Amino acid sequence: MPLTDAKIKAAKPRAKEYTLNDGEGLALVVSPKGRKWWRFRFQMNGKRTGLSVGTYPYITLQDARTRRSQLKTLIAQGIDPSRKRKEDKRRTSASEAFEAVAREWFQKNLAGWSGRHAKTTIERLEKNVFPFIGERPISDLGVEDMLGVVQRCEKRGAVESARRVRQIMSQIFRYAVAAGRAERDPAADIKGAIPPARKVKHHPSITDPKEIGPLLRAIDGFSGTFVVHCALRLAPLVFVRPGELRNAEWSEVDLEACEWRIPESKMKGGSPHIVPLSRQAVAILIEVYKLTGPSGYVFPSVRTASRPMSENTINVSLRRLGYDKEEMTGHGFRSMASTLLNEHGWHKDAIERQLAHTPKDKVRASYNYAEHLPERKKMMQAWADYLDSLKAGGKVVPLFAKAN
């Protein structure tokens, strides 16, 4: 009786190795340690032999059946699959296999990437690509092979991963073409075959203190323009919406009073908003004031001072640091602050007011934008000190409301 995915998943290890037959020579072998792998048994020249066709779950039931069909076709043509595999390995130089070329490309680009981006890239290749086409000569791979790789990602619901994997494969092929080891980039041909990712309302954010420190250190090491670097450093300290940050004007900032007063015309909720500025935030603003002050936009466009920096600047900068949109966004600094301030016992109303979450009663909101201001000032300084300690990686400054 043919196997099913449910039966395969339910197969438990026993004292001795055993097999589950799918039929037509294909069987799943289950080891005493629980490892599962596919074996295809066949007869050639009167001799019965077997051939491994991959490890489960990297090679799915459908994948194994496809390989069985391919091997049966070879046998029908009088070709010994075992001998052919050995000959193919000898004929194909290890340096021309897709995995070898990919790792070579990876090493050449490593110096220009953040540690996080490098880790994410190689993990995507090792999980989604190498098990399926890694041993194949890169020059033999075509559109169908590329499509097979991304469709496996799509089937498990990882559409964004499919998109990223295609981009990585395309970069590897472009490298191979430039090196004369491939004629074209088949991954480019399937760009339109990946469905658009579903729009999600949540804003990915890093809220684990162990991961916030590396993020802040990466931001400190950002190699973009000075103005963007200052905006990126300020974003976690003030946790306003990205649009409010990029549209900040010097006329709204009082460095002596340590306040940034955003007019209602710029606020999502239509009410004015006060952002108490910590010592760290003021220090950053003083730095950028020397270049962009005393009037106009705090963070002007690189092209013209009469316009603010582009709306996607913070997100693009995070991408450059190796954080993709599934991990962290400019809006995510708000979630980061909200999560940790709530966890550490700060007054919920003070947090909500600082996030500029408008109450249902908008009239009340317009008259109470300074509500909880003394606690908010204390909270914003405690938050900045806490972030500094996470970035330093030493003893963490308490963020608990009672400690402040």
TrEMBL record:
Coiled-coil annotated residue ranges, if any: none
CDD domains given in the database record: INT_P4_C (cd00801)
Gene Ontology molecular function: any one: DNA binding
Tyr recombinase domain boundaries: 202-385
Alphabetical UniProt keywords: DNA integration, DNA recombination, DNA-binding
InterPro entries: CB (IPR044068), DNA_brk_join_enz (IPR011010), Integrase-like_cat_sf (IPR013762), Integrase_catalytic (IPR002104), Integrase_DNA-bd_sf (IPR038488), Integrase_DNA_bind_dom (IPR025166), Integrase_recombinase_N (IPR010998), Phage_int_M (IPR053876)
Gene3D superfamilies, A to Z: 1.10.150.130, Integrase, DNA-binding domain, Intergrase catalytic core
Domain Core-binding (CB): 96-177
GO BP term, example: DNA integration
Signal peptide: none
The family this protein is said to belong to: Belongs to the 'phage' integrase family.
Protein name: DUF4102 domain-containing protein
Phylogenetic lineage: Bacteria, Pseudomonadati, Thermodesulfobacteriota, Desulfovibrionia, Desulfovibrionales
